[in-house]
Model the fold of this input.
Amino acid sequence: MRMDYFSDLVEQSIADSKAEITGDGSKFEARVISDTFDGLSTVKRHKLVYAILDEHIKSGAIHALSIKTFTKAEWSAIE
Done:
C-alpha cells in the first residue's frame, strides 16, 4: 500500500488538513497540519489520527506510527 493512500485518507477525514506520512515497510511517521487541532490536547489530536488509521494498524499494514500534529499557526511558527 502506498504512503500517499494513508496521507489522502487522513486529509479526507480531517477538514482542511495537510498530511504527510513517510516511512518504510510498516513503520511510519505522520505529520498532520489542521486547525481542527486548535484547542485539543496532544493526546486528543493523536487519537483523532489513530482513529482514521485504526483499520490499517489492526491489519498490520502500519506496525509503528509516530504522529506529530500542528495547527496552521503552530506550523507557521516552526517552519
Summary: The radius of gyration is 12 Å. The mean pLDDT is 92.
